[in-house]
Amino acid sequence: MTTEATAAPLQDTVLGGSRPYAPSLTPLREVVRAANRGFLGATLLRFGIAPYLLLVDVLALAAGVSLAAGLTGGLLVFCLATIWFNSGAALYRSRLTLSILDQAPDIAVRALAAAAVASAVGLVVGAGDAVAPLFTAAGGYVGAAVVLRATVFTAVRAARRHGLIEHPTLVLGAGHVGRQIVSALVEHPEYGLRPIGFLDSDPLLSDDERPAPLLGGTESLADVILETGARDVVIAFSSQPSSAMVDIIRTCDRLRCELFIVPRLFELHDRSGHDVEAVWGMPLLRMREAPFRRVSWRLKRVVDVAVAGLSLVALSPVFLACALGVRREGGPGVLFRQTRVGLDGRAFELLKFRSMRPVDNAESATLWSIADDDRIGPIGRLLRASSLDELPQLWNVLRGDMSIVGPRPERPHFVDQFATTFPRYMARHRVPCGMTGWAQIHGLRGDTSVADRARFDNYYIENWSLWLDLKIVARTINVVLTGKGR
Predict the structure, then answer these.
(1) Residue 477 DSSP symbol
(2) Could you say which DSSP state residue 289 is in?
(3) Cys bridge to 354: 41, 269, 336, 468, which one at CB 3.0-4.6 A?
């Protein structure tokens, strides 16, 4: 959970500023903290249900393998494939409704698929006689997994009903749908969500009609989350227009809250799928976890450090040649330093090879484009055309100011302008800025549409993956070598 010390820049980044709200929530905060106090809440449930389900699968695999003729290479492949297939089916994620009957078909299908993969590997390496033990192991695993997972689910439901597991939950929308959600959660604690209040700038229900207190307007979401320690947010047709809900959703991501949305026309909504939950017959869409909250996001930083460090060493002759060229053309001072805005609106000093010498710091901070400036000499134009002037930013990446791939950082003067002019511009700062990005490989650099850049950058953030980063790097190389993107 983000601390109050870091709340201000985060709120400014996501919601465009912190807004006070009337009710005092100090007593409510103590109630929330008391509900999650103790050894059970602090230790056993720290990482949720996932570690226990993984342990259950390991035990079930051991039981299945014990039915086969000893541990062989094929059985090892089967075990690894089973865990891999299960992770892709969201079988280790906590759900509001825990039912082994819902999961049993997925478990069986993926176990059989894992056995088929292991059998194919066995046939390739000449171990075709191991096919029968593999499917025996699959059957044993499915039976054991169903029994063990059912036991875990029963224990979790009991813990929820007795208040040992409960997530403080905010409901956005003090209307009839919001009242149904809150009433269902109060009457059925086995879902694990304990409503602590509504947020709505224009509540439809009066004080007497609301089953939970009104804690403020929708714009107070970040403040209320920080004050109460809320862990889940349910959006239930609030008074806010749909366009404003985008910022609200992103606030939940930055504050590490789970987000559920009551879909429009929910009476007709398909309730199948891994991202659909249900609260007493009411469908809820669980929003996908933001990329920067996933384990794979940590690998991004590892890749950044490795690539930047190796590149600084491997390209040292290129650095030397660029430095000598800049020194000869423009005199002392081969590096150009400029303040840029990065993650969560924090400023840092960006490094580039100098392609021209600005008149003063004011010109450096406020001049939008120098592409056609006649003060740029031949060396400077070569560096800019080949993007070699950007190489010193590898040091920024190594320091943690930037990433290899991400939204391009802008100067504070222009960030202040764009934040008030272009919707969603500040949402670009949810992740570290980068040397190259999704917008740049589509030709959005220099004197191009800022609105388009913001849209492309936010698309990158919402759809991030390590493969997308690799794709952007490959296309960046193509842009640099050919002078155009594809």
Answers:
(1) H
(2) P
(3) 336
- Residue 337 in this model has a pLDDT that exceeds 70: yes
Radius of gyration of the chain (CA): 27
Q: What is the mean pLDDT of the chain?
A: 81
Total residue length of the chain = 486
Across residues 30-42, what is the average pLDDT?
48
What is d(CA 199, CA 25) in angstroms, rounded to the nearest whole number?
A: 13
Q: How far is CA 12 from CA 7, 242, 373, 427, in A?
A: 9, 20, 35, 10
User: 232 by DSSP, 3-state: which?
Assistant: strand
Q: 210 is in which domain, residue-wise?
A: 4-36+166-289
Q: What one-letter code names the amino acid at 84?
A: W
DSSP 53-102: HHHHHHHHHHHHHHHSSS--HHHHHHHHHHHHHHHHTTTTS--SS--HHH
- For 250, the token pair is 């992103």
pLDDT, position 11: 43
Q: Within a domain: residue 464? A: yes
CATH code of the domain in which 264 resides:
3.40.50.720
- State the pTM of this model: 0.73
> What's the CA gap between 300 and 461, in Å, rounded?
13
